[in-house]
Amino acid sequence: MEEKIKFLIDKLNNKHSLEQEEYKYLIESRSEEVADMLRTLAVQARKEIYGNSVYIRGLIEFSNICKNDCYYCGIRRGNKTCDRYRLTKEEIIETADEGYNLGFRTFVLQSGEDSYFTDDILVNIISSIKQNHPDCAITLSIGERDKESYKKLFDAGADRFLLRHETADKKHYEKLHPKEMSFEHRVQNLKDLKEIGYQVGCGFMVGSPYQSPETIAKDLKFIEEFSPKMCGIGPFIPHKATPFKNHTSGTAELTCYLLSIIRLIKPNILLPATTALGTIKEGGREQGILSGANVVMPNLSPVAVRKKYDLYDNKICTGEESAQCRSCLDKRIESIGYKIVIDRGDIKEGKF
Ligand code: 5AD
Ligand code: FES
What we know:
Layout (H helix, E strand, L loop, with lengths): L2 H13 L4 H9 L3 H19 L2 E4 L1 E6 L25 H13 L4 E6 L7 H14 L4 E5 L5 H9 L4 E3 L7 H7 L6 H14 L2 E8 L6 H14 L3 E6 L16 H14 L9 H6 L3 H6 L5 E2 L6 H4 L18 H11 L3 E3 L11
Parallel strand pairs: 1-8, 1-9, 2-3, 3-4, 4-5, 5-6, 6-7
Helix pairs in contact: 2-9, 3-10, 4-5, 5-6, 6-8
The structure holds 5'-deoxyadenosine and FE2/S2 (inorganic) cluster.
C-alpha cells in the first residue's frame, strides 16, 4: 500500500480528522486493501466503545404526504402516482405500543413535510407515547420546521432529531432540490436543533446524481465539524416516478467504505446500517455492521401502509413477511457475531 494512504489512515485513526483534500484522496484511491484496513480499524474502534451491541430503532412512517419536491424522492409532491396516507394518532400510539412489546426502546417518527401535523397535534402524540413508555427515546424525522416548533416538540419529550444534510456542497444541493429549498436553511435547522438540546443526526445519500469525490470530502468535513450524534448514510436508489429515474444507484461498496471512515472520524457516533443499504445488496445491512455501523432501524409501520412509504424502488421489508422484521433481524445480526440489545441506545459520551 502506498505510503501516503498509510499515513492518512493512521492520521484518521489517531486524530479523527483530515483536511478536505485528504478525504478526497482517500475516496479516490480506494482499493480492497485500503477498505479492509479501514474496516478493521473501524470495527476495533466501535468494539472498544459499544462491544458487540447493535441498537434497534423502531421506524414509524406516519405520513407520506409531503410539500417538498426533492428530485430524488419517491414521495415528492410532484409524484401524482404516489398513494398517500396518514396514520391517526391512535394508530401511531398503537404502533409504538406494539413496538414496545417487541423490545424497541426508541421510536423514530418519520414523515414527509405534512402540514396537517401541527405543533399541537405532534405535541399530543409525543407526550402520549412518552407517558405510556417513559423509558423510551423518541426521535423525530419530519423535515424542516421553524425553531419555535422544534422547541415545542423537544419540550413535549422528543429526544433526538434526524435531518439529513443531503450534501454539504451548495451547488450540489441545488442540483438535488428545487429552488425553494436551500442548503443554508438546512444547516440553520441543524444548528437550531442542536442548540435546543436535541441529539442531532445528519447524513447523505451515497452515489446521488452529480456527487463527486469532492462533494463527499465536503460531507466528511461537515460531519467532522458539526459533530452529530448520529449519521444516516445509504445508497441513492432511483425511483421510477422521479426526475432521477434514469440515474444509476449508489453502491454498497462505497457506502461501507464511508461507514468505516465516519466511524473513525467519530468513534462513538450512532451509525445505522440503513434499509437502502439492505435494498441495494442482499446482506447489505450486515456488511454495514461489519464496516463500523452499530444501529439498525427496522420498519414498525402497519404492514398495510409500508409499500406506500415509497422513497425508492424495491425497498425491502414491505411485504407480508415484514411483520417479522424483529426476529429476522435478530437472526441476521447474530449470524455475524453481534447482538441486538433492548436499550434506548444513547450515545456513549467520553473521551474517545
Ligand atoms: N434513494 C435513497 N435514499 C433516499 N432518500 C430519499 N429518496 C431516496 C432515494 N431515492 C433519503 C433521503 C432522505 C431520507 C429520508 O431518505 O436522504 O433524507
Ligand atoms: Fe425486515 Fe428481515 S429485517 S424482513
